[in-house]
Amino acid sequence: MPEFRSRRRFLSQIGCAAIFPFAAIAGKPAANGGEIIALNSAIAQSLLALGITRFGMPGVATYANTIIEPALPSSVFDIGSSTEPNLELLAASRPSMILYSPGSGPEPKRLREIAPIVAVPYYQPGMDHLDIAKNMLHSIAHITGTQTAEARYLEHLEWIFEQARKRTTLFQGRPLLGIDMAWARIFAVWGKGSPFDGVLRELGLSNAITDRDKAIGWKYMSFQQLLAMDDAWGINIGPLSKRTLNSPIWPMLPFVRNNRLISVPPSNQYIAGLPTIERLARTLGEALEAQS
């Protein structure tokens, strides 16, 4: 398996030019239209993984602050907020197609009045999120004719998993607890079927949470429930708030009290395409290796 030493090298190998040869000013829709519109950041991540860098999406600034990788090139243009895309901007861009996920965003009927729409499912209760993300990439590759880029990206992703497995062998058999958010006495943790769970399975590691609640695998746990998890290592995804760190109950949690809390850089697991899963696998592998 080829060793992709950097994401830049990888993107250069799959060809990072957009698949639509329309002249355009970076950051603005092409004068003659014809671009793809991605209505959520998981779809946008998939397009970038396939080397497609010319498209429109809502919430460009939000993506930069929450998704982080892969970074959006300047050729991606904004069509409004992530919670409420601007349909007038969308129509003005005269897109060739709109990629959306059922259950979120504007009504398909309204989108169909603007351009052909293609459903790319994201929220699929009961299905493992890693499989959902792979299916999303596969569907978009088929739609855009970029199957070769898909195969190269999946090869790259498997290499990332392989490297992370080598870094985390000492943590095999230790239950890992993925913590994403914390309030006064309630915590959001990642259970079965979540992106975090998928990464652990690929690395041969154990999730301390073996059930699931929400569609993408996260659930709420109380302070009392966490107190009972004596053996778990806490994996904090992203920075914790000062309110959490200053809470009198925080030092009482077993993974804090026993110095078994590991932090990894933020990655938005709530709308995760394969590149977000790749980032989590890489950063988790590095963090666990540093703790070994």
UniProtKB/TrEMBL annotation:
Q: Which InterPro entries match?
A: ABC_transptr_periplasmic_BD, Bact_iron-sidero_bind, TAT_signal
* Keyword field contains Ion transport: yes
Q: Which domain of life is it from?
A: Bacteria
Q: Which GO terms describe its biological process?
A: iron coordination entity transport
One of its Pfam families is Peripla_BP_2
Q: Which residues form a coiled coil?
A: none
Its name, as the record gives it, is Iron complex transport system substrate-binding protein
Recorded source organism is Pusillimonas noertemannii
